[in-house]
Protein: Transmembrane protein 14C
Amino acid sequence: MSQHPSYLMTALCTAGGIAGYARTRSLPSLIAGVGVGAMFGVAAYTIKENRNYGHETALTASLIMATSMVPKAIKTSKPFPVTLAICSVVTGAYYTKKIIEYW
Structure:
C-alpha cells in the first residue's frame, strides 16, 4: 500500500518532464522529470518488494522535486507546478512518517 504515492509521483513527474519538453523544448525539464520519475518508480518497486531503502529513496526524490517545484509554484502560480509542489511536499511528509515508524 505504501508504494502507491510513489507510483502516482512517477506518473506526475514523467508527465511534467515530457510536457515541459513538448511546450518549450527544454531538455533539462525532460531529463529532470524523467529522472525523478524513474527514482520514484525504483522506490515504488523497492517498497512493493519489501526491500531496503525504498522509503528513503522516495523521500529523496520528494525532496528533489520539492526543492525545484516549490519556488517555481510560488513564482508562477500555474496549476501544474503548484500541483507538483503540493504532491511532492505531501509525499515527502508521508515517507518521513513511514521512516520514523520503521525506526
